[in-house]
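A.,

Following up on our hallway conversation. Structure tokens first:
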């Protein structure tokens, strides 16, 4: 299998940097995975940084956004997908992704990119193609005192509690705030028109209004509901990036979206 990444050879039109704030609406548990813990520790700790501050990995936010976008677009009829987002395909099948990854030349990869990959694959990336969308880890704005809660493991087959199945889960309480960045590189071409449309008309628009989305685990136990909202949006031109200049913040997100889409049109 070829591991060479596809290069679109397109110039950068703009880089959009979105400073986002996450507010926990329910307890939030982003776990560290299975580890051997001492008796004094909780059974399911949350993920923390080197200073013991809770964090939400960018990969978790990315996965939640990817699932959200896929679910919404897959629910739309073909007329709406084409007319509103210029989307021909939402998501490629496994074999189509595999065929793209096996392409030996840039020309063959480009053909597979156009014909086989869906907008979700192109926006969030697949092996062999780097995503134009990057998301940083979310870190807390304030000091957060973590809490823990005891739960009972349930045997789903017998629909009853498992004997000796008590466990403690650590969590971030409600009404706590985290900050992170979304960075989107918009290319100056029409090959990724569907990608730009989905980013602007779906992701950025909803972030401007405030997007309710579930993060982390234990969602069936009342964990994970958050609101993500764009706090500040910056749009860099290639010249500003090259010279290290900072643009003025976008004051009207909806107007910026309309103008960006007209330019792309």
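Then the amino acids I'd put at each of the 265 positions:
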């Amino acid at each position: 299998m070829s591991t060479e990444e596809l290069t679109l050879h397109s110039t950068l039109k703009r880089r959009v940097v979105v400073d986002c704030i996450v507010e926990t609406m329910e307890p939030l548990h982003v776990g560290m995975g299975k580890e051997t813990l001492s008796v004094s520790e909780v059974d399911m700790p949350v993920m923390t940084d080197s200073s013991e501050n809770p964090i939400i990995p960018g990969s978790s936010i990315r996965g939640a956004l990817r699932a959200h976008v896929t679910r919404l677009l897959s629910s739309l009829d073909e007329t709406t997908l084409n007319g509103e987002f210029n989307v021909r395909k939402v998501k490629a099948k496994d074999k189509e992704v595999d065929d793209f990854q096996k392409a030996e030349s840039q020309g063959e990869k480009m053909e597979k990119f156009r014909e086989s990959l869906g907008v979700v694959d192109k926006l969030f990336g697949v092996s062999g193609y780097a995503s134009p969308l990057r998301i940083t880890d979310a870190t807390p704005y304030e000091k957060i005192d973590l809490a823990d809660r005891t739960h009972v493991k349930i045997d789903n087959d017998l629909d009853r509690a498992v004997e000796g199945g008590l466990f403690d889960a650590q969590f971030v309480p409600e009404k706590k705030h985290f900050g992170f960045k979304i960075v989107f590189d918009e290319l100056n071409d029409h090959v990724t028109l569907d990608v730009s449309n989905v980013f602007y008309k779906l992701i950025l628009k909803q972030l401007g209004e405030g997007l309710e989305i579930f993060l982390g685990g234990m969602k069936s136990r009342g964990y994970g509901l958050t609101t993500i909202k764009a706090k500040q949006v910056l749009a860099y031109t290639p010249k500003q990036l090259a010279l290290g200049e900072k643009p003025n913040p976008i004051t009207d997100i909806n107007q910026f979206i309309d103008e960006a889409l007209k330019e792309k049109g």
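The radius of gyration is 21 Å. Curious whether your intuition agrees with the design.

B.
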